Amino acid sequence: MMYRFIKTLNLLLLSLFFVLGAKKGSAHKIPINQQVYLDSIVTYIPKMYLKNLDSLHTYLHDNVSTDYERAYLYYAVFAIHYRYDIARTKLKKKYIKEYTTYYTAYTKKGVCRDFAMLYKELCSRSNIPCIFVVGRVKTNFFGVVKEFSRLNFFTPNHAWNLVKIDSSWKYVDVTWGRVNREIKKSYFLSNGKKEKSKIKIVEGKYFDDSFENFYNKRKAIHPAFYAQDTVFTYKSSFKKIENRKVYNDNYDYEKELQKLYENPYYIYSTTFNQNGHVYSKFKSSGTLNFHILCSPQKLKRSALDPLDKDFHQEHYEFLKSLKENDLDAFYKMYLFQITKQFEEKYSKLIQK
Fold it and tell me: What is the pTM of this model?
């Protein structure tokens, strides 16, 4: 009797916690009991699965049955098990190496673009449409000074995701997700021994958040990333919603997002760069490093994705496929040079 009373009291307190969180602007859309269950799955991922991208995805994917639950698990894993690599943000650009998704999963650390790319990879493996999004977030005084000194005002400084579930695009920022409390659980084993555990509860407001909350502190470099019929101007994006100016009040974001989703390398395309530049005046060179994408030796890798002969074959096919994309003139020129160099190296590798 006492056990049932305590259990009921815990649920009531947990309900009160989430209600208070919602009043502060949190868009909590997962039932409380369901979130506790989902967070318990992520909290107790076996260590043997956690550092391997393949096994991590399989474990999370197989533990639930809906795309919404899977998308949430992929969000929660960053809040519970990953840490932001502050040291990497202080490196000079010439010393920075991009991470493969395998490497990010193996080290369980990275920065926003690493996390957003890994989240996209996890969703893609579950056939959940997901887009890598870049834009800008508000920075503190020191961040402003740093960007001013480097003339980086038109360069994106953050990355997040759009994920499509049940025919609707959801806003997700795995970098900003965090654990905000723990729940103690007690249970009895088959031998009668009592065990205690702690479930880490994730703050859910950066998963499937409302437009007003999510884009209160972010502005995207491309109008499609807002996933709204009404798009506000880039300059007025950080203002209160009633003070923003309208850029387009009949924007077909579904059509544009579908185009971006179908082209995984859209960020280098002529169409994306032209439309994005008209909207936000952003510098395409500040989004992702095209030379790193084309040069596998410039990527931080794990033992699970080595630079072996099979990889070189796959990368050679990848470079050929890039030629078929709607690439900007600059990227086309660089791709021609890097492909020629790679063909020479690849031919020597084949002869060995």
Answer: 0.81
